[in-house]
Structure formats: structure tokens, C-alpha cells
Specification:
The protein has 311 residues and is mostly helical. Helix content is 52%, strand content 3%. A 3-stranded antiparallel β-sheet has the order 1-2-3, with no helix packed on it. A hairpin with an 8-residue loop joins strand 2 and strand 3 (199-202).
Length: 311
């Protein structure tokens, strides 16, 4: 998509872009969501036209002025804070796409997202363990007792969620033969899922022995099928099983943190970002079609967790 398209017909450019861009689940947005976001962007495009600006010339101060003058249903006739945050999140996504395509050098909405008035519940800070909590969980996995085959399985399941950043949907369809730990770069082959292409998912070193122990045990089990993670019936593991292995997180001394599988996936991204890896590299590790998830983690989670680490 060319720069002049966004300048001459910003609504046409936006409509073409939003129809193709994946959301956080890597599926395209629902028509109702596209309709709402198009109406939001139309307000921004009208503001740009009224002020003789373009989406490429506006800076953070200009975006802030737009948000602060956004009309709404409050008594003062202006939009409330949650509405402003929704508009900011949308604009940040658009600016990210322009930066990725080389049409902008920076995202002017990024610095605004750190301001107190734009930090609220609707900012949807990704849920994740802190770096120290993830270290504690990894240490617990190393010393965790495994008296039954289900314990070995659950340890491997948590290790793969935290050590490869897979979604639970991806893990549920991993086959025994998809695990390659003896390769030069140990990985798990992941079939195409939604808008994610098939890929070789990197596996962090701490997870290798736990995954290998389960693979060896799984091969020795006289059960039909080749699903890696199974129930005691032999059927592929069900999503509800995740909440059973939450006890592992609690046993690691992490209290009051009911993480979804996405929370451990976010933690995987957090650990790699904190290790100095760039957003593009982490995006590839996650199999994401956009930079949006790593960007949200880096902007909204990593600074906070770095502070926690230092206290």
C-alpha cells in the first residue's frame, strides 16, 4: 500500500488495510468490529483534513490534541477516557503497520500509551508472569516430583507453553513426531493454524529435558493415535486440562495469578524481549502475523516488570 493512497484517500486505504490485518487471535476482524473501527478512523481522518495534516505528518502532540478534543456523550460534550483509549489503541495499530511497511519512522501513539490518562483497564495490558516469577516456575519444573504419567505430561505441557510460546490450540494438535530435540536447533513443528503459517517453533533450553521425558514415556504407552498430549482415555488433551496444571504454577510459589495459556505465551515473549531480542524476532518466534502483540508486551508489560525486577 503506497503513501499517496493514505494521503489522497485515507478512508480507502484504511478499509483495504483493516480487511486484511489479523487481530490478536490471528483471524481477520469480524464485520461488526471492522464497522466500528472504520467509524473511529473516519473521525481521525476528518480531524486530519480539518487541520491540514496527514497521517504521516502528525506527531504525538497532534494525536494527543485529537484525543482530547474527541466529541462524546459526556456532560462537557467530549469523549470519556475509555473511548479515548480505544481510539488510541486503534491508531497505535495503524501507525505500527505504517512503520512496519517503511512509511513512517515512528509510532506517535506509542509514547501516549505510557501516560497515566491513557492507562486504564481498557488498555488491556497483556497478562504475564514477572521475570522473577517465570524464573521461579522454571526452577520448580526442574525439581518437580512426577509420581504419575500425568505429572510428567503436565510438566511437559507447562514447559512447552512457557518455553515455546505456543497457543493451547497449537499444543492440542502437536503429534509425537513433531518434536525434534536432537536437531541443531531443537524445535516443535506446528501445523498452520488460523492465519499463522506452519512453522518450526523454537524451544527454550530449560524445556528440553521435560519435553524429552514425556516424549519417551508417550511412545511407550500402548494407546492409539499419535497426539503428543493425551487424556487418560487416549483422546487428545482438552483445553480444560490447562486449569488442572495451574497447580504447578501455584506450587512454584506464585500466588493469586490465574494465568490463561495466553499468559504463559506472553511470558515467553516477555523473556525474549527482556533478553534483548527485537520485536520482529519475537514476532517470528510467536508465529504472529503482526507486530501488535510483541509491541503491546514491550510497551505495557516490560517496563513495569523491569521495575519489579529492580525492587
Amino acid at each position: 500500500m503506497k503513501i499517496d493512497f493514505w494521503i489522497k484517500d485515507p478512508m480507502g486505504a484504511f478499509s483495504s488495510w483493516i480487511a486484511q490485518v489479523p487481530c490478536e487471535t490471528n483471524h481477520t476482524f469480524k464485520p461488526s468490529s471492522i464497522k466500528q473501527m472504520t467509524a473511529m478512523f473516519r473521525q481521525f481522518a476528518a480531524y486530519l483534513e480539518a487541520h491540514g495534516a496527514t497521517i504521516f505528518a502528525i506527531d504525538a502532540a497532534g494525536v494527543d490534541r485529537y484525543l482530547q478534543t474527541l466529541p462524546g456523550r459526556s456532560k462537557n460534550g467530549l469523549a470519556n477516557d475509555p473511548t479515548r483509549r480505544r481510539h488510541l489503541n486503534l491508531l497505535s495499530r495503524v501507525f505500527d503497520a505504517l512503520c512496519k511497511d517503511g512509511m513512517r519512522r515512528n509510532n506517535p501513539a506509542e509514547s501516549l500509551s505510557r501516560l497515566e490518562r491513557y492507562r486504564g483497564r481498557s488498555a488491556a495490558t497483556p497478562n504475564a508472569l514477572t521475570l522473577s516469577q517465570s524464573d521461579a516456575l522454571i526452577e520448580h519444573l526442574e525439581r518437580m516430583p512426577t509420581p504419575s504419567w500425568m505429572d510428567v505430561r503436565d510438566r511437559a505441557l507447562v514447559s512447552l507453553l512457557l518455553g515455546a510460546g505456543l497457543t493451547f490450540t497449537e499444543i492440542a494438535v502437536v503429534r509425537i513426531g513433531d518434536v525434534h530435540l536432537t536437531d541443531r536447533m531443537p524445535h516443535v513443528y506446528v501445523d498452520a493454524c488460523g492465519n499463522r503459517q506452519a512453522r518450526r517453533a523454537h524451544v527454550d533450553e530449560f524445556a528440553w529435558p521435560h519435553l524429552d521425558a514425556w516424549c519417551q514415556l508417550r511412545r511407550s504407552m500402548n494407546l492409539p493415535g499419535d497426539a503428543l498430549f493425551i487424556e487418560d482415555s487416549g483422546l487428545p488433551i482438552d483445553r480444560t486440562r490447562y486449569y488442572g496444571v495451574h497447580a504447578i504454577i501455584t506450587a512454584a510459589g506464585i500466588r493469586g495469578k490465574m494465568l490463561s495459556p495466553m499468559g504463559l505465551r506472553n511470558t515467553f515473549a516477555l523473556r525474549h524481549l527482556a533478553n534483548g531480542e527485537g520485536q520482529e524476532q519475537v514476532r517470528r518466534l510467536l508465529g504472529n502475523a503482526t507486530l501488535h502483540s510483541p509491541d503491546r508486551i514491550q510497551r505495557l508489560v516490560l517496563p513495569t516488570h523491569a521495575i519489579i525486577q529492580q525492587t
